[in-house]
Design goal:
This protein is mainly α. Strands 1-2 form a two-stranded antiparallel ribbon. The longest helix has 28 residues. The protein is flat.
Length: 106
């Protein structure tokens, strides 16, 4: 005895809690979507569809020294550049979202 092999380690407890939370998130989200939309679908489909691109964008951002290098892969949209010599004050930036407007509304 005394080798420390009794019971579960902290890492396994964390994994078990993580799996349980993921299960509750998926089942609860699907139940909520069914209750509100009468459709059985995965919760936050839009987020998870672009998740890999968001992670890649994050790694590229950090890898380039926290400087923007081109557009986002996730298609989150963009802001118009308001800096420039033609701006004399009072200008407003406009937001352009990519994708379709009202995609989740039916």
């Amino acid at each position: 005895g005394g080798s420390g092999s009794d019971g579960l380690s902290g890492g396994w407890i964390f994994i078990i809690i993580l799996v349980c939370l993921a299960f509750v998130y998926i089942v609860g989200g699907m139940g909520y979507n069914y209750y509100t939309k009468r459709r059985l679908e995965f919760p936050n489909v839009e987020l998870w569809a672009t998740f890999a691109d968001l992670v890649r964008d994050g790694f590229l951002f950090v890898g380039h020294g926290f400087k923007k290098q081109g557009g986002s892969l996730a298609g989150a949209g963009s802001y118009d550049d308001i800096a420039g010599p033609s701006n004399t004050g009072g200008a407003k930036a406009s937001y352009t979202a990519s994708g379709t407007a009202g995609a989740g509304d039916e």
